[in-house]
Specification:
CATH topology: Nucleotidyltransferase, domain 5
Oligomer: single chain
Radius of gyration: 14 Å
Structural class: alpha+beta
Helix content: 40-55%
Shape: globular
Strand order of the largest sheet: 3-2-1-4
Distance between the termini: 35 Å
CATH architecture: 2-Layer Sandwich
Order of helices and strands: HEEEHHEH
CATH class: Alpha Beta
Largest sheet: 4 strands, mixed
Length: 119
């Protein structure tokens, strides 16, 4: 019997295999119950080029309810996109880590697109 986490990781492997085949820089999104994290990872998969999360002190001050809501996801999406563009990256592949494209993951992706990332 496959549990919920194993099923999510199985879905994530398929996405990551396709992104690796394309040799593309990827925007990785991960969520927990309390926080959301985003990283821009190089095409070879070894270097983090930009990152943002709701654990950062300056981000935590600006959040009203904490890191587990859609407003926090939008903030992180915008922040990671700004940092990626500053690092010279405009085109990425979106890696949702096996999470459903819905709610906080969708909010993060749309905020990153609005801030200038293309994917």
């Amino acid at each position: 019997m496959i549990d919920k986490k194993q099923a999510r990781l199985r879905r994530a492997r398929k996405t990551r295999a396709k992104i690796a085949e394309l040799k593309s820089v990827r925007l990785l999104a991960h969520r927990s119950n309390c926080h959301i994290y985003a990283q821009v990872i190089s095409a070879c998969g070894s270097t983090v080029l930009a990152a943002a999360s709701t654990l950062e002190p300056e981000v935590r001050k600006s959040l009203v309810k904490g890191g587990g809501d859609i407003a926090a996801a939008k903030t992180i999406g915008q922040l990671v996109a700004e940092r990626a563009i500053k690092a010279g990256i405009e085109q990425v592949a979106f890696d949702r880590s096996g999470f459903q494209y819905h709610g906080r993951i969708k909010a993060l992706a749309e905020a990153a697109r609005e801030a200038g990332l293309k994917f």
